[in-house]
Design a protein that fits this description.
Strand 12 (230-243) and strand 13 (246-259) form a beta hairpin. The chain has an 18-stranded antiparallel barrel. The chain is 5% helix and 53% strand. The chain is mainly beta. It has one domain: Porin (Beta Barrel), CATH 2.40.160.100.
Amino acid sequence: MKKYLALILGLLLVLSFAAVAFAVPADIPAKTQAVVAKGSTQITLGGAMRVRGWYTDNLGNYGGGPTGVPRESNSKANYDQRVRLDIGVKASPNVQGLIQMENTGGGYTWDAGPNVKPESFTSFRQAWMDYSGSDLFGFKSGFRIGHQLITLGNGIFYDSFQYGDNALKFYMDPTKELHVELLTIKAAETFVGKNTDDMDLYVALMTYKWDPKNTVGINYTYGNQSNIAMKGQNLGIHANGNIEGIGYKAEADIHFGSVGELAAKAKFKGYGLMLGANYNLDPVNIRGMFAYGSGDKPGTLDKDEGFQTFVGRQRHYSFVYEYRANAATGARGTGIENTTVFNLGADYTIAKDLRTSLDGYFLRANKVAAGASKNIGWEVDAQVKYNLAKNLSYAVTAGYLKAGKFYPSTPAAPRKSATVLLNELTLSF
């Protein structure tokens, strides 16, 4: 008993010194490791701290009316902060795990009042165990279980990179070029005491690297939620790579299946497309992108033509329209659903530690009510990012959405173009 107690106390002592070491103002390597167990077991500590300052104008935050709609409203300014701590475990060449913690919500807003403790509620962004080996099939295979980050293809249909999902994944690499996965994902757990209201996704995917620079893939998803008789399916194909100096990414997804029963049954008919390309003329990188997500046609009760997405409130393309404003679905975090996106942009590396980018977007809704406008508007985004020191970066992002007639306008709440400014300082270790 004394041996075990001594081992536990010793482990806590080592971890406490490691925590102090990360707190002092020193030049900390990005991949610092602390071995706290005998043998080959390694514990890797890491993380990041981010502070952001926001300024938002004409998105309905104050002054009444719905939030996120480009309309005349008071401006808003605030700071928020996010803290992440990573603990990586490598018990052997075949066994590893990761715990990544962050403050709840990914960022607490600085509050009013002196001498007030900040939020200390902690969530798990990742918490998974992984085992792999070649004994079973003669080539690498394994499983990963727990809360993990998952993206299918290029992420226009399913992307949980923001906060992750609980999943069980089996994977194998029959050849150096071929990768295969089978997954079951808990997309929603409404009430723990019932299993009929859960949304479960079952996924099979395959990617093939046909040369060192080019990869193609296919994935199939079956979604089930019993209490609403949902049996949805999605088939996606994607490609990424570089041919003769031209980089590209492409994806196409189509929905099948249905939701509801008898007279209330509706078939899924949605689809999404994305094609992007870039050409690097160092120090300038020129980019372009087109994306289309179908919308649900009003009045067709026996069909749901909308491109249903699982992408979360994270930025995939435009800074204001997708990330901060209500999209053509009437909500945030819906990706390209009911939206056509045209994008042209460029990145310019001024110096080793200084980069800028400029993007223009033209946006249209794909399905609207009779007599309504499809013109969402156009948007311009710009960013400057500077590496102040090792592992310390500062970025300023600005976005301007020239709101089109898709958004309503009344004498009491006239339509106005929206502006969002963001400055953020990030320390990673």
